[in-house]
Amino acid sequence: MARITVRRSRSSMTGPNTVPMPAGPGQGRPLGAPQQSDPQGVAHVLNPDTIAHANELVSRIRACFSRGLIGQQQLRESLIVTLMAGGHILIESAPGLAKTTAARLLASSVSGSFSRIQCTPDLMPADLVGTQVFDFATQRMTTQIGPVHANIVLLDEINRSSPKTQSAMLEAMAEGATTIGGESIPLPSPFMVIATQNPIDEEGTYTLPEAQMDRFMMKTVMTYPTPEQEGRMLDMLTRRRTDQPDYSHSPETTISLRDLEFLRDTVRHVHVAGAIMKYVVDLVSTTRGSGPRPIQGLGNIVRLGASPRASIALVRVAQAQALLNRRDYVVPEDVKDFATDVLRHRVLLTFEAQADDITSDEVIDRVIKAVPVP
Q1: Among 70, 76, 127, 211, which is least packed, fewest CB within 10 Å?
Q2: Is the pLDDT of residue 147 over 80?
Q3: HEC secondary structure over the chain
């Protein structure tokens, strides 16, 4: 039977500079670069105090990770960047590499509601989104929302759920709402899905369709820890005398939902030059067999390239990475830092390529090397 646990929201706290304010000329912006503007034409500039406050909030998230996870810096940064960029993330690894622990540590660093859903083949869509029940007291149907209505949702082993349940999750990720009894119910804001899957099990699993894979901003793959990291992990476990991480943190060491909205709003105001946007488009176009320098023979190993949603994800992730690097503008390195995580589940290989043990990561490396850097 599916196991569902829900942690309801704690009281949020407010911090300084909760909304990025325009102030003076941009700091660190290339000479002559235009300012960002909203649809009403009002210019927004990130001042040093705003950038510093954003990084101070991120340092709290990293501190929560350090208290429960050894190593896995790439996974930690992927989770943080996806959280800031407003996307969803899929984590894949062999069993026992702390996928669930990492996801719960991220959720515990944010003072919002959290749900953990253990996916199984008998999990039904109503178990996720909710259902309508008859209230004998009022003689009316009432709506009971499901655990997906939380700020951060952990879908453990998502590929064990049936296609029907996966489609219900797809609606939530795509529309930001669920449908119960013909009524559309908005999901809380902010909303983030962290899904995990085990790539080696086949019995009782259902491959995620390409449409749902594309809804994840990133797909990160965890690797085994080094012997030194594994030794530190054992030392940490013996010192705390329990195998269960402590997911409870004081309000002073976490960030509030308002802080998270501040981070996401600040990311959207990071400047992206036209040359950077063209670089992103060239990267994505090259995966489709075109681009400024097409890769010869790519059509024999790639049956479907990345979608335009990949271009959007690359820009948002690059904006978040630039902010973490204390800049108010994006450089090509910000795009390349997470290009593999953004593209690996969107570049689909032919059967011939899979038979030759060619991976999507190898294809993406060739694409990054082929596209000229602005």
Answers
A1: 211
A2: yes
A3: CCCEEEECCCCCCCCCCCCCCCCCCCCCCCCCCCCEECCCCCEECCCHHHHHHHHHHHHHHHHHHHCCCCCCHHHHHHHHHHHHHCCCEEEECCCCCCHHHHHHHHHHCECCCEEEEECCCCCCHHHHHEEEEEECCCCEEEEEECCCCCCEEEEECHHHCCHHHHHHHHHHHHHCEEEECCEEEECCCCCEEEEEECCCCCCCCCCCCHHHHCCCCEEEECCCCCHHHHHHHHHHHHHHCCCCCCCCCCHHHCECHHHHHHHHHHHHCCECCHHHHHHHHHHHHHHCCCCCCCCCCHHHCEEECCCHHHHHHHHHHHHHHHHHCCCCECCHHHHHHCHHHHHCCCCEECHHHHHCCCCHHHHHHHHHHHCCCC
